[in-house]
Design brief:
mainly alpha; globular; about 210 residues; 2 domains; Butyryl-CoA Dehydrogenase, subunit A, domain 3; 11 helices
C-alpha cells in the first residue's frame, strides 16, 4: 500500500474520533476563547518551516472561532440553539477540527524537541506532512480568507504533500507500526478470525456453549 493511502487512513481515523465530540469541543473552546492567539508577525512563509506551518493552523483556528463567536452573539439567547445545532453546524464542526489540528500540531512539535536526536529528522518530515495535509484539506477556505497563506504558496501545497509522501515512503512500515494499531482496530472481527473471537463472552456476540 502506498504511503499516501496509509496516511489518509490514519488521518481519517483521527478525524472520525474528533467528529464524535465536535459540538462539545467547540462549546468548551469557545467558552475559553479570548481572541486571536497567533503572533502579529508571521514566521518566514515556507512550507518546510514548522513554525510557519503551525502559525497557519493557528490562524485558521483563530478565524473560525472569531466567526463562530460572532454568529452566536448575533443569534442571541433565544436563537442560540438553532444557530449552534442547525444554521451554523458546519462552522461549529470546522472550528472544532481546527482546534484539534492546532492542538495536535502543538503537541507534535513538543514531542519532536524531546525525541532522540536520530528520530528527529523523520519526525520532522512527518510533522510537515501532517500540517501540510491539514492545510490541503482546507485549501478552499484558505483561498478565500486572509489567514497568512499567500496564493502562490497555496498553489504549491498539493505538490508539497506528494513530495513528502514520496520522501517518507521508505519509512512507511516503521511509522505505521509505531502507531501500534492492531487488526481489531482496523477491521470488524468478522473480517478476521471470527471463530476465535466468539470463543469468549463478547457481551452481545453469540457464543456456543
Amino acid at each position: 500500500m502506498e504511503f499516501h493511502i496509509v496516511w489518509r487512513v490514519v488521518t481519517l481515523l483521527v478525524t472520525a474520533s474528533v467528529t464524535l465530540t465536535v459540538y462539545q469541543v467547540s462549546k468548551e473552546r469557545l467558552a475559553t476563547f479570548r481572541g486571536p492567539q497567533a503572533p502579529k508577525e508571521a514566521p518566514a512563509a515556507d512550507l518546510t518551516n514548522p513554525s510557519y506551518l503551525h502559525y497557519v493552523l493557528l490562524r485558521r483556528e483563530d478565524a473560525l472561532f472569531m466567526e463562530l463567536g460572532g454568529e452566536m452573539k448575533r443569534a442571541g439567547k433565544d436563537g442560540m440553539f438553532a444557530a449552534w445545532m442547525y444554521n451554523q453546524s458546519d462552522l461549529v464542526q470546522a472550528a472544532a477540527l481546527a482546534y484539534a489540528e492546532r492542538l495536535a500540531s502543538e503537541q507534535f512539535l513538543d514531542v519532536i524537541t524531546k525525541a532522540d536526536t536520530d528520530l528527529r529528522p523523520v519526525l520532522g518530515r512527518l510533522y510537515q506532512l501532517y500540517a501540510v495535509d491539514c492545510i490541503e484539506r482546507a485549501l478552499g477556505w484558505y483561498a478565500i480568507s486572509d489567514a497568512g497563506l499567500p496564493r502562490d504558496l497555496a498553489k504549491s501545497v498539493p505538490a508539497e504533500a506528494r513530495r513528502l509522501c514520496h520522501e517518507l515512503a521508505p519509512e512507511a512500515v516503521g511509522l505505521v507500526e509505531a502507531f501500534g494499531i492492531t487488526d481489531a482496530m482496523l477491521s470488524a472481527p468478522i473480517a478476521c478470525d471470527w471463530i476465535s473471537y466468539n470463543e469468549y463472552d463478547n457481551r452481545g456476540e453469540l457464543t456456543t456453549d
